[in-house]
Structures are given as C-alpha cells and as structure tokens.
Amino acid sequence: MDRKAENMGTIRESITPRVVIQVFFFIVVIPFIPLLITRDWDWREAWLYAALYIFGFFISRVLAARRHPDLIAERAKFLRHEDAKGWDKLLSPLLGLGGILVLVVIGLDALLDWSPSYSLELKIFALVIIAAGYILGSYALIENRYFSGMVRIQFERGHHVITGGPYRWMRHPGYAAGLLTYLGTPVFLDSGWAFLPVIFLFIILILRTGLEDKTLQDELEGYREYAGRVRYRLLPGVW
Q1: Maximal C-alpha separation, the chain
Q2: What is the pLDDT of residue 11?
Q3: CB count, 10 Å around CB of 221?
Q4: Pick the CATH number of 3-229 from 1.10.150.670, 3.30.565.10, 1.20.120.1630, 1.20.1640.10
Q5: Residue 219: is its pLDDT beyond 70?
Q6: Cα separation of 174 and 167, whole Å?
Q7: In this structure, what is the dihedral angle of CA atoms 14, 17, 19, 22, given to the nearest 10 degrees?
Q8: What pLDDT is recorded for position 19?
Q9: Contact (Cβ atoms closer than 8 angstroms) between residue 166 and residue 232
Q10: Is 79 left (phi over 0), alpha (psi -120 to 50) or beta?
Q11: What is the pLDDT of residues 128-177, one digit of tens each?
C-alpha cells in the first residue's frame, strides 16, 4: 500500500458516526447560535461570523489532513484518550461549553437588546482580530502533528517538540489564537455582556496553558530546552 492510500485509509477510519455528529454540531449548529436565537436572518455580521467560522474550520482541517492524516484521527478521539491528563478531562470540555455560552449570550443580548451597538470602525478591527485568530490557529494546527484536543504525551505517535511555524515565537500559539477570536467576537456581534463568559474562557485558557506547559516540561524530552529558547507561552513579551 502506498503512502497516499494509507493516509486515506487513516482518515476514513477516523470518520465514525460519533465524529460525524460532532462535526455537524460544531459546524452547522454552533456558529449559527446567535441567528437561531434571534431568528434575525438579516443580521449580516452574524452570517459573516458563521461563514468565517466554517471556512476557517474546513480549510485548516483539509490542509492539516493533507500534511498529517494521523492528526485528524488523533483529534477525532476527543475525550476518549485514557492517558489524557485528569485535569484536562475537566478543562477541555469547559472550554467548549464556554465557547458555546459566549454565542448564547450574544444571541440573547441581540434578542433582548441589552447592549448598544459598537461603531463600524471597532467592528472592522474586531473582524481583523477574529480572522487573525483563525489564521494563527490554523497555522499551528497544520504545523504541529501532535495538536491533540486533549493534553497527553503521544508516545505511540513519536511525540517530539515542534519548533517551526508559530512555535518559533510562542510555545502555545493555538491557545493564543483562541484568545484572539474570543476577544473579537463580542465586539463584532455587538454584545458587551458576552465579555463575561469571555473572561471565564480567558481564565480557563491561561490555567490550561500553564498546566500543559508544566506537563510538557516534565514529561516531553527536549521541551525544557525549547522553553529556554522560546520564553513566552501565549503573549510574546508578556507571558
């Protein structure tokens, strides 16, 4: 069997009914939560947000699958890794729920008219921030073969330190990307109240970053030396 056929087989094996349902929920339901709550089908910003969300998801996964087919299989096992860290079995679902909560609050805010609208200039800036988050997250996913949905040392996949791409500038660019998208979304979709769940997400992300970084330094060969060269976890020049 040639490499291409083997890769296609790996991808097909990862596409189970459970995975199909998960993808449907994350791609068809979640990005449209504000529209589903308000039923305001003329809300252009919400449509643009959903389109950017879906486009970013599919493009990043297609490019990642072409480069690392086994990564798609790894991510498809979300919450089913027995060797995942116990604390991450709590934090990872909390991040997912927090992301949903942000969109629910945005939808309720628009429906009940809780918040005033932001200016066009701020919305454009927020859209740039969201797009930058998706680009950075996609770059990290494509570059890192071990970009799992759960924190674990992937010994069976030859886990080693990734130092290329965005990992040259920060140790956890995927989390930094999440911070950007969470920060821009409430402004672009006119919801000051959505910053409350965003603050919750920031706390969870920072906590998870610290715990994951400690795990990698303690358990992944070469990571401590890498951390000595790349000083910052999330924000270059800050932390």
Answers
A1: 60
A2: 53
A3: 11
A4: 1.20.120.1630
A5: yes
A6: 10
A7: 170
A8: 62
A9: no
A10: left
A11: 999 999 999 999 999 999 998 899 999 999 999 999 999 999 999 999 99
